[in-house]
Each structure stands twice: as C-alpha cells, then as structure tokens.
Amino acid sequence: MWAFINKLRSPKWFYSISAKLQPWFWAAAALLLLVGTVWGLAFAPADYQQGNSFRIIYVHVPAAFLAQSIFVSMAISGLVFMVWKIKVADMAATVMAPLGAAMTFVALFSGAVWGVPTWGTWWMWDARLTSMLILLFLYLGVIALRGAFNSRDSGSRAASVLAMVGVINIPIIKYSVDWWYTLHQPASFTITGRSAMPMEMWAPLLIMVLGFYCFFIALTLMRTRSEILRRETNKRWVQELVEEVR
Amino acid sequence: MAFSSLNEFFAMGGHGLYVWGAWGITALLMLVIVWHARQERSQLLKSVKRRVRRQNAHSQSTQVPVNSAQRDVRNDA
After folding, report:
1. DSSP letter string over A179-241?
2. What's this model's pTM, rounded to 2 decimal places?
C-alpha cells in the first residue's frame, strides 16, 4: 500500500501510466459523445410537453454533473496535496479548474437557452440557478487565487483551501430543488435509482453523461502531463524523455 | 428516427435556434478545449527541447578550446 502511494508521489510514474490510459479515455469519450449526440438529437422521441426543446437536456445535464464532480475532484486533490504533499495531486487540481468553470458555463448557458421556450425567461434568481452561478464564481476564485501569489506553493495551498471550503456549495446545489420552492425541476435522472424518463430518452442521456466523464478524465490526464512538463522542466528524466520523442 | 425529413430535423419543431444554439456552443467549447490542450503540449515539448539544446550547446562550448586547438594545429600543418 505504501509502495503504491509512494509511486503516486512520483510525477515520472504518473507521466508513464497516464500515457497508457489516455488513448482509451479519448476513444471512449469520442465514441460515447458521437453515439449520444446522434441518438439524443435524431432518434430520442420528442417530449410530450416540451417538444424538441427538451433535447437540450443531453448537454445540460452532463455538463451540470461534470461541473459539480470536477469541483469535488478538485477539493479531494487539494486535500491529498495538503495532507500528503503529493505534487501530482496539485497539478491535477490546477488543470481541473478551467474545465470545471467551462462546464459550469455550459450548464448555465444551455439552461438559460432552454429556459426561454419552457419558462419564458432565460434567468431567475432561483435557488438552483443561483447556487450554480456561485459555483462558477468559486471556480474563477480558485483560478485567480492560484495565480495571485509569488510562490507557487502558497498559491497551491490557498487554492486547495478554497476548493475544500467551497465544496460546501455542492450539496446546496444538489438539494436546492428540494429545500426551496424553485422553478427548476427536481432531478429527472439518477444513475442509481429508477428514472421517471422512458428508456428511449434515458439511455442517450446516460451515454452522454458517461461520454462527458470520459472527456474529463482524458483531458485531465493530458493536461496534468503538460503541467508535469511545465513544472519539472529541469528534471533529468523530463529532458531525457524529450530527447526520445525527437 | 424522431423526424420525417431533414428540414424538420433542423427546425426542431420551431425550437431549432435553442436546441442548435445550446449544442453548438457546447461542441465549440469542447473543441476549443481539446485544441488548446494539444497546443499547450506541443509548446511545452518544444520549450523543453530548446532548453536541452541550449544546455548541450553550453556544455560543448566549454570543450571548444580543445576543438579549436586541434583545428589550429591542422591549419598550421
């Protein structure tokens, strides 16, 4: 067990193992997103109330899932970095933040666009929408805080702390639709429980969600490797590795 | 297939702008993210290579006196 943890500490080990994993996640993401897109846009039946505008769900829900999952992953990485001083965890947290912010933006944007035909408004200061907007600001705060220090280590620790504190917002987002009376509909989709949606609508959504998760994993592996190159430029193994690539 | 014609598919029952707008922005953003990650990686590889080359050049330049001395000898001959 300790041997394994010590291996995880080594950016070199991470760099080689992620190279093997990465193509599988990219391939899975491409396949799932392609199948999910075609199925969701062209083959899933139209909703009896919302008509075809409901198809926005296939980008809205996966993006919203990812926005929250990435924040939790970032907070866990921050904790791992603070407790065990594992640098790779901090590098992963660094690259997760912009993707999380992008996914939060996608969830908010697609939700706003969806709101126009269904609610008649693109924005409401509703509990779910407001807590998602706070999530976007938390992401931007984490990114800004990381860059606000002269020493990288101080920035990393500040960003980790903000991520760990900000994770409080995640259960608020999740239960906002139950705790407050909101315009936003309650969860129509769960991975574990039975769903209210018919299979022909639900299956493409599951595929899209899995596709988005594979995309997140693939991109995080890729960009963490880049972050290793950036921070370990002076290490002998990085320089030898570059020689081999040429 | 939920649509009977291609026109119907693009119209999305009058909600075309919303559906295609939401999907379009999502797809565009994801493509930009992937493009940026690739760009970032190739830039970093290049900069590490440049650094290695500079270091090699530096370590060679310390050997230059030997080389130039040899060349001088050859020139004299």
Report:
1. HS--SSPPP---SSS--SS-HHHHHHHHHHHHHHHHHHHHHHHHHHHHHHHHHTTTSHHHHHH
2. 0.88
